[in-house]
Amino acid sequence: MTRRNGDPTGLHRVLDDAVVLPQAAERLDTRRELWPDEVRIRVERLNLDAASFRQLERKHGGDRDAIRAEVVAIVAARGKMQNPETGSGGMLVGVVEEVGPDSPLGLTVGDRVTTLVSLTLTPLVIEDGLDDWDGRDEQVPCRGYAVLFGRSIAAVIPDDLPAEVSLSVMDVCGAPALTHRVVSGYDRPTVAVIGGGGKSGSLSLAAARRAGARRLIGIVPHEEEAARLRAAGLADEVVVADARDPIALRDAVEKAGGPADVTVVCVDVPGCEGGAILSTADRGTVVFFSMATSFSAAALGAEGLAADVTMLVGNGYVPGHADLALQLLREHDGVRALFESRLG
Amino acid sequence: MTRRNGDPTGLHRVLDDAVVLPQAAERLDTRRELWPDEVRIRVERLNLDAASFRQLERKHGGDRDAIRAEVVAIVAARGKMQNPETGSGGMLVGVVEEVGPDSPLGLTVGDRVTTLVSLTLTPLVIEDGLDDWDGRDEQVPCRGYAVLFGRSIAAVIPDDLPAEVSLSVMDVCGAPALTHRVVSGYDRPTVAVIGGGGKSGSLSLAAARRAGARRLIGIVPHEEEAARLRAAGLADEVVVADARDPIALRDAVEKAGGPADVTVVCVDVPGCEGGAILSTADRGTVVFFSMATSFSAAALGAEGLAADVTMLVGNGYVPGHADLALQLLREHDGVRALFESRLG
């Protein structure tokens, strides 16, 4: 094989004929040797994306061996873990094994890290056939190696928190970081978080408070979750509303002190665009973190409502996002309690 | 029929069982009588969305009578023009016939206007069976009436420009207005407009200049369009690149003086997210106006590239958007020439 020139995006490891980025590639080059700006990780565990694992479980009717065999086969064929049905991957945990001389990631051999870029673009080799995985959940013990590019991101796992909690926080750390940035741009705003009782939602509420929000409204789908979020003490008002019903959502937010200057959408159900737009004040901002967001529903919805709102695609990367999220967890018992109850 | 309480979104005219906004509704109430904040328009012409018209043409193999019959049938069944296949509508031109006492739109009986909200949410009755339409293009002469809601938008057609040019400008006027706002937030930025030779692209270049851009880069798909855009004098650099090839686009923008502080995506082809992100500087902004944008490709793409860029869903509504776009056309001969050449 010839050795292509390295590119910080990892383009040099794409084996497809067309020029595509690693995430869009059919197949990646998984050779052990590093390009100068790369890092190799000794893998300990894969965390499959929940939607991907559920799809595999459904497809194989819960046959654990078949699930395991399919994950091994996907990674062998594509050089990365990307569920062909859901398109999603997950993240991994491991120990830094080698750091290329030009790597900008600031990692040291021996660091225990989690990747903050998706497995869908991470070259990966499984060496143990996933023999230690029972196929019962998305936590996959794994021996093998993975490669990070110049523009990848990884975070060192802190010592003072259970690893599972840290990982669970890092998985959603883009949301509080971007929420913090957006809320900081307003003067003591009202902030509504749709799905405020979830992982990214509770962290986003805490981030909004730290960024100077005057009034925090948490929206949850049912009374049980409302009780949990009230107990966590993260919001000034907790309201129950179906986020897919635009008028119900608008009216609920208004009753709780809205419209919001900043509305953060953290629920993974389709059809929340209209309600989020209607719940937001003129010159306000809606941040969409849900992968179920429809671009055209948001764009045409705002136009159709003559709504002068800024709408952001929730970028999962903001510098310092993992550190901020871990800090929020350490400082807010309510956030920690919600996370621990979800890890159950 | 009972008379429901009015809502500025037009919810009171939704006839569906579920609570949905007019755009998502299966059927709207088209009664002539106005709610207090509504306006009725005497329709002169419909401008069908181009994608919708092409779909109808393909479906009926160019049979003009069948195309006409289908549009009449859709409007009769749904109370609005929304192509069930493409989901899109278009806009209309007409004269204000009656203004409800509480209408906030500032219109006067006799004003000749175009609607700036989609036909997909506009109650519409066709009275002439579209007898005067030859079915050959998306300009549809029509007698009938339409209703605007409290939160709708309409613009008075100016006297000093050919009506066709005005309409064509108003159709895309959200793009230059939002571009102007975003560019104004940076200090003498570099701005790249992907699809700079098109209608929304050329207006966005002119808007970026007015908002204080230091350097304007126009990206076009082939040499012929490059020559036209160079002749229009709207960009400092015009480069030819395939916007679907992320590396080619990044390198082309870099060569032209990038990366860009603001990248505006105005081309309606899928797969431009990665290239737009890579062409944009750290802390820069990408504005997606293309309806072919994939929300998840943008979100996961930026995360996968560790790109600290703000990504905006191009909202078609910004206050004053129609006036700004018409001004830009009047002030820039280059914009006007491009529009006139496209109206051919």
From TrEMBL, chains A, B:
This is L-erythro-3,5-diaminohexanoate dehydrogenase. Transmembrane segments: none annotated. Gene3D superfamilies: Medium-chain alcohol dehydrogenases, catalytic domain, NAD(P)-binding Rossmann-like Domain. It comes from Nocardioides szechwanensis. Residues 12-158 form the L-erythro-3,5-diaminohexanoate dehydrogenase N-terminal domain. SUPFAM superfamilies: GroES-like, NAD(P)-binding Rossmann-fold domains. Coiled coil: none annotated. It holds the Pfam family KDD_N.
